[in-house]
Amino acid sequence: MKKTVKLSLALVAAAALVGCATKPAQTTTNTATTTAPATTSSVTTTALTPAQILQQTLASLPNKVYFGFDQYNLTSDAISVLQQNAAVLLKNPQVSIMLAGNADPRGSEEYNFHLGMKRAKAVYDYFLQQGIPASQMCMVSYGELKPAAQPSDFGGNWQKAYALDRRTEINYNQTCQGAGANQ
């Protein structure tokens, strides 16, 4: 038994010494100096114009706010989206927006048209309060005419589809034309 313990201790000590061994540092002497030939790159970078930067900024913004059933009051989520958009609009007064109100298909076509306009107006009024001039915005209602989704998109779950229909879209660099539009 004593021989086994001594042998085990000897093996552990040997392993520790081998594991801790360091390699001697290698030294190299460079007697010749070489110079690499200059190379030219064929990659060309193009800086974005201010207009392109603005377009990328607008494209990256969330542009929809959602409403509850038969509602047109702004939720905290909607206000968060609108704050982001207002900050960009205030810095870029040349950018026009069309606010498009929408509704789900429950209710009459006339009722949904008016509800869509109330939703667009809620967003319009918020932007006015933030200092965006009325001349920069217009409103239109599509009522139930432009659904965002179909119940079949959600395995027949009409509640999910209709929730996406209850919205106002912020459409940049567009103007309102035709019936149902308010400038």
User: Biggest β-sheet, characterized?
Assistant: 5 strands, mixed
Mean pLDDT: 82
Helix fraction? Answer: 40-55%
Spatial sequence of strands, sheet with the most strands: 1-4-2-3-5
Q: Report the structural category.
A: alpha+beta
The arrangement of helices and strands along the chain is HHEHEHEHEE
Number of strands: 5
- Which shape, going by the Cα principal axes? globular
Distance between the termini: 99 Å
What is the CATH class name of the domain at 56-182?
Alpha Beta
CATH topology of the domain at 56-182: 60s Ribosomal Protein L30, Chain: A
User: How many separate helices?
Assistant: 5
> How big a fraction of the residues is strand?
5-15%
Can you put this structure into words, describing what you see?
- The chain has 183 residues and is of the alpha+beta class.
- It has a domain at 56-182: 60s Ribosomal Protein L30, Chain: A (2-Layer Sandwich).
- The chain is built from 5 helices and 5 strands.
- It has helices at residues 2-20, 50-60, 76-91, 109-129, 158-165; strands at residues 64-66, 97-102, 137-143, 167-172, 181-182.
- Strands 1-4-2-3-5 form a 5-stranded mixed β-sheet.
- β2, α4 (109-129) and β3 (137-143) form a beta-alpha-beta unit.
- The longest helix is centred in the middle third of the chain and has 21 residues, at 109-129.
Provide a brief overview of the structure.
The chain has 183 residues and is an alpha+beta fold. The protein contains five helices and five strands.
